[in-house]
């Protein structure tokens, strides 16, 4: 308790020192972004265009960092995680007034709007950098510093690099380092325990529950949840047939006889049967939806269902820094006895308490049987 | 020895020609107006006065304004015009040549072939080459292949126009299916890029692509104009054209080669923009009739007008959002076109 207090004070002090000393370093520095480009940025950046990874930006830079943001890809936050957006809006109503540069996947992204914002730093997610194609080069040619971050990749080293990069850019290196350490420690602990146990890998089936039981949602190869299953010592049954993400046919699931099933859910309230998880979702309603998946043909005979090893996880806890909490959850559903001491949902909340202006309220990690993990 | 009837006929013909020239000029001025409007509008919603000032005096403007007006909006606006000219002229030539009102670069599968070429290239990461060069190059090659196939099939079957149209439509379906197959196989990010390409968007325009497309038009349109007399004769029917001494096989070969070159160049840079190539010739025909000397350039002009107008609409439909122009051309254009067909009003001057 005392130690954590000390650490937090120290962190705050470091952040304060960094913040005050910034103007003294108002000169161009060179950084390497996560796709290996060398970018020259003049710090502190005062007009930041932030494409994605909004909470991660806030976590690394603190709320003050958001004061320097002049534009965002609004739909990627407001439309994709509406509940999360609403909660952030209560803390910072001005978010709604930020310029919107459009969203890459629905083809509304406008390079003209980005340029018109006169940004001195543009931060894009790797999928956006790839998605905007030639517009990326346009920004670079105009001399606008564009850096790329990536928390989607299975390569965790790039997650850490993204965090450290934002730490450098926002002048919060110490805070970034503390965040990376927490993630690394989690991974090390999980790897060590699984390796030491020497057990056979349980077979796990992971599906995105956005389509409900009636339709097969996507599963993962060595990507996102699939990558996390690998890290946590699970054998994903879709690993051989799916590269990044794609739906497999129902019979493949039955034939593979998974020992564990994990359904990723979100605040998909507009869908009547999709897996509900996340902000404002109660454990009861999440369980009701999860039970719906068990009624799929043949599922009653699957080992995972017979042994009650069916779980749900908040999809929003992937591809973001507190993914280490989701990783704990995946490890725990695979090896309940090895990780009985972990409380993934508590890890998730404590990360928010430490680094973000909001604390999520709802259901983020769930077992089908109440009271069991 | 003058024949009063002939004199009268000639005088009336000259008068019709003069009126057509006036129609031309009027549309030309309209296009100028649309060009300015096209540059004045954009997702960043900049003040129109600032945009015009930057347009008039780029040297005095600041870097951001200059980049937006001169490097983004102007190439886009000029691209709308050049692509409109290419598609409109090609559509008119195809309709005349194949004696089919449904013929256009889109309905005959050229655009679909270009789309497949681009998708294949994107799927393979451009084989390590610069995407801004290799993607259009691939699209160009496949559009030309499609044109050659249509021509080849027609040639085998004795140049029957119906055969060529059917071959074109078969190609359209085949390349659409191949596109879908590539999209199905692609990873999500790559699939996204393919979808964008297929959408058809002027936003991809750069000074280089505008220049290349303009050069293609400047080569192809005058050469097509040289054949316009022969094509007018063809409108009277193949037999009569032959009787007038037109070498139809050669005419088809030359014109198909020219329009393939021009449309393939245009669509390889902007993606699939349907409707213009089909409709611009019909609108032009309403205005000037079948005289190919007027129909060809006017189809190009109307094509440019339509695409410029669609570009403006795509920017003001949802202020601040750039709707892909390929969507606008069809959604806004089709009801208008249906109205024209149904009212059957002949505007010929």
Helical fraction of chain B equals over 70%
Largest sheet entry of chain B: none
The helix content of chain A is 40-55%
**CATH homology superfamily of chain B:** ABC transporter involved in vitamin B12 uptake, BtuC
Q: How much of the polypeptide of chain A forms β-strand, as a percent range?
A: 15-25%
Structural class of chain A, by secondary structure, is alpha/beta
CATH class of chain B: Mainly Alpha
Low-confidence stretches of chain B: none
Pair with the biggest interface: A-B, 25 and 29 residues
Radius of gyration of chain B: 21 Å
Average pLDDT figure of chain B = 85
Could you tell me the number of beta strands of chain B?
0
CATH T-level fold name of the largest domain in chain A? Rossmann fold
Structural class of chain B: mainly alpha
For the sheet with most strands of chain A, the description reads: 5 strands, parallel
Euclidean distance between termini CA atoms of chain A: 27 Å
Q: Note the overall shape of chain A.
A: globular
In terms of DSSP E residues, the strand content of chain B is: under 5%
The figure for the number of domains of chain B is: 1
CATH topology value of chain B: ABC transporter involved in vitamin B12 uptake, BtuC
State the main characteristics:
heterodimer; A: 373 residues; alpha/beta; Rossmann fold; 2 domains; five-stranded parallel sheet; five-stranded mixed sheet; 16 strands; disordered N terminus; B: 349 residues; mainly alpha; ABC transporter involved in vitamin B12 uptake, BtuC; 14 helices; 78% helix; globular
